[in-house]
From TrEMBL:
The keyword Signal applies. InterPro entries: TSP1_rpt (IPR000884), TSP1_rpt_sf (IPR036383). It comes from the Eukaryota. Keywords: Signal. Residues 1-23 form the signal peptide. This is Thrombospondin type 1 domain protein.
Amino acid sequence: MSRCLLLVVALSIAIEAAGPSWGAWGLWSLECASCPGAVSRGRTRVCIPGDDLSTCSGSRIELEHCQNCTGQWSEWVDGEECSDTCGHCGRTTRTRQCVNAAGCPAPTCEGADNELSPTPCDSGEVCLFPRVACCEGVKVRGIVL
């Protein structure tokens, strides 16, 4: 009789200790490599409630962003401020944006998002002093200013 009593006590302890727990994760919804253009994939798991019907902590859904989250560059937009005030010496900085692919949290684009404009900006003012870099200066009666 003491044997049965021990078994009941052990079983009772095991049941009381059973709290909520997560089951194993299910399969991923897709393989990123086999689905070009995929932004993300997901999988789920089931909560096995405890004896007191308590629920599991944490999320039942796991999302993973696929590695290929490539955006595309927008058109270049010229800045308004010229880097120099005379002649054709100055340049504006032009910018572009990496445009988000649908649902992509942080797209990546190759290259820089800003650069000096390839064409000089002209403020309309004459360069009074020569600059070796770009301006020759203005000649007045044979004298270079």
